[in-house]
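Q: Sequence in, structure out?
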Amino acid sequence: MDNKNNIIVHIGLNVNKGFSGRAIQINTIIEKLPDFEHKIISITGNSDNKSYRLKRIIECFNILKLLFKNKLNIIYHGWWFGAILIPILSLRHKIIFQSTSKNYDDYSTMKKGIKKIVLFRIDFFIEQSIPSNYNMTLKKLIYLPNICKVYSKTIKRIKNKCIHSGVISKRKNQIGAMQYFIKNKIEMNLDFYGPKKNNFDSSLEYIEKFNNLIDRNKNFNYKNEYTHYEIENILDKYTHFCVASFQEGMSNFYLECLSKGLEPIFIPNADKRLFESYNYKERDNFEFIFHNYPISMWEKLLKSNKNLCEEV
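A: Exactly. Output:
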C-alpha cells in the first residue's frame, strides 16, 4: 500500500480522555494495527460551555489543514456533526464512520433528518453489533463488534464482589444500581470506578446524591478512575459486574468483564442488547467474535482501495 495512504486519522469528541469508551477503542485499534501511522484529533465536548467554543473552532481548523495536506483514512468515532461538515471539503479521503450508541448515531437513526447527509459522503459505516453469519448486508454498512483485549480468566474468589464502571451520571445509573442492591438485600460489595465531575453526561446534583448513598452504606465504595492498562488487574478482584446503564453502544467494560469470566448482575431497565445478541454463558467463541474477527475486518477495510464488499 502507498505510504501516503498509510495514515489513519481518528476524530471524535473527547477522545484524548483515556477513560472514555471511544478513547479505549481508538487505542486498541492503534495497538492492533501497527502498520499504519495513527493520528488522534480530539474535539472538545460540551459545546454549550462558552469557554469551549473557541477551542472547538481551532480544532476543526486544524483538521481541515491536515486534510488538505495529506491523503488519509479518516475514522469518525461517533462525531456525526463533524462527519457532515468536514468530508464535504475533503473529497479525496477514505471516510469511515463508527457508530457509538443505539438511537443516537446507529445506521437507522442516521438515515433521518440532517444526519442522513453523513451517509452520502462516507465510504463505510461501522455499526456496533454482532454480525449475522459475519457478512455485510448493505454496500456501506458493516456490522462489527468492538475489539476486546482477551484476558486470562479471573481466579475464582471466595468472597463475591461486584464492579461498576462509568462516568458518575444518570445515564450510567449508579444510584439505580445501589437502590437495587438495597431493595433486594444483596450482601455484596459494590465498587464504583469512573470520573466524578460535572460534564455533559452528568450533573452536580446527581454526583451529590451518589456521594450521600456511598457514605450511608458500608457495602458501597467509590474507587476513583483507572487507566486502560490497569483494568486487567482490577478485574481480578471481582466475581461480578453491574449492568446498569440506560443506554450503551457495545461497552468496552462489559466485554472486558466477559473476557475475564465475571458474571453480570442486571439492574431493571438497563440496556441489555449486547447480552441478548450474544450468549455470554457460552464463551468458547468470544475470542473470535470480539478480537480476531474485528481486527481482521479493520485491516481489510483500511488497506482496501476497492469496494470492501468485493473482497470479503
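The two ends are 18 Å apart (CA to CA).
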